[in-house]
Structure formats: C-alpha cells, structure tokens
Amino acid sequence: MKNVTDSFLSLSRWPSAGSFGFNIDILSTNLINLSVVLGVLIFFGKGVLSDLLDNRKQRILNTIRNSEELREGAIEQLEKARARLRQVEKEADQFRVDGYSDIEREKLNLINSTYKILEQLENYKNETIQFEQQRTINQVRQRVFQQALRRALGILNSCLNNELHLRTINANINMLGSIKEITD
C-alpha cells in the first residue's frame, strides 16, 4: 500500500506542462468535481425532482380543494343551523306570546270565576241571614204567643168557672192546632 501512495506522490512532482498528471490541489479540484456532479444531477435528476415537485404540488392543490369543499360544506351547515336557530327563536317567541296570552286569559277567567264565587257566597250569606232572621222572628213570635197565651190562661183560670174553662181550653187547642198547621 505504501508503494501505491509513493507512486502518486512521485507523479505529483512531475512537471505539468505537456503531460498528464494528478492535481492534488484540493480547492481547485473540488470546484471542478462539484460542477461536474451538479451538472450530472441537474441533467439526470431534473425529471425526478420535477416529478417530486409536481406530486407535492398536486397533493397541496388536492388538500386546498378538499379544504375548500369542507369549508363550503361547513358554511352550508352553518347557514342551515342559523336558519334553524331563527326558526326556533320565532317559535319560542310565538310560544312566549301564546303563553302570555294564555296566562292573561287564565288570569281573567280566574278573576271572573272568583267574582262569581264571591257573588254566590254573598247571596248565600244574605239568604242565611234572612233565614236566621226569619227563624228568630218566628221563635220570638212563638214565645210571645206562648207567654200571651199563658197570661190569658192564667187570667181565665182565675176568672172562669169549670164549664167556661173547658170551652176556652178547647177553643185554644183548636186555635193552636190551626196555627201549627200553618207554620208547618
């Protein structure tokens, strides 16, 4: 291996004029090599690179197209949702208005029925008062009549004889019987 390296080194000492030899100057040879490699890469790799870029471009365009379609679908769904929301809000407003009118109607019905019940209670109260007054008046009449009858009987008993006394009792009994029939 040492022999191969020595032979390359001995070649580098040869004069370059008119002969073939190796240039061991790294900077100048690298630029040439780099230019050759880039030229080969551009010539042969241009198709591969353009295919890769075209594929990437198509994927990006497809993604953009899909995104646009999704966006349009989302916009349509949003519009449908907004329309549904407006419809639901209108229905809610209608229910609210109907509810308020139902409440007002029920309130008026309740007030009217309460007034009717109060009128009926007032009428029952008045009828009860009249009934109690009439009953009290009848009781007072009966007591007054009974007291008057007792006094009259007392006076008659003290003034009358037995025969007159018996006739008076019979007349009073008949009179009481007819009064009792009238009050029943």
Structural features, described:
By secondary structure, the chain is mainly α. Helix content is 91%, strand content 0%. The N terminus is likely disordered. It is a single-pass membrane protein.
How are the secondary structure elements laid out?
Layout: H1 2-12, H2 26-159, H3 162-183
Summary of the model, kept short:
This is ATP synthase subunit b, chloroplastic. The chain is mostly helical and 184 residues long.
Tally the beta strands. 0
Radius of gyration: 67 Å
In N-to-C order, the SSE pattern is HHH
End-to-end Cα distance, whole Å, is 159 Å
| Shape assignment | rod-shaped
Residues in β-strands, percent: under 5%
| Poorly predicted residue ranges | 3-16
DSSP helical segment count: 3
Fraction of residues in helices? over 70%
What characterizes the major β-sheet? none
**SS-derived structural category:** mainly alpha
The pLDDT mean sits at: 82
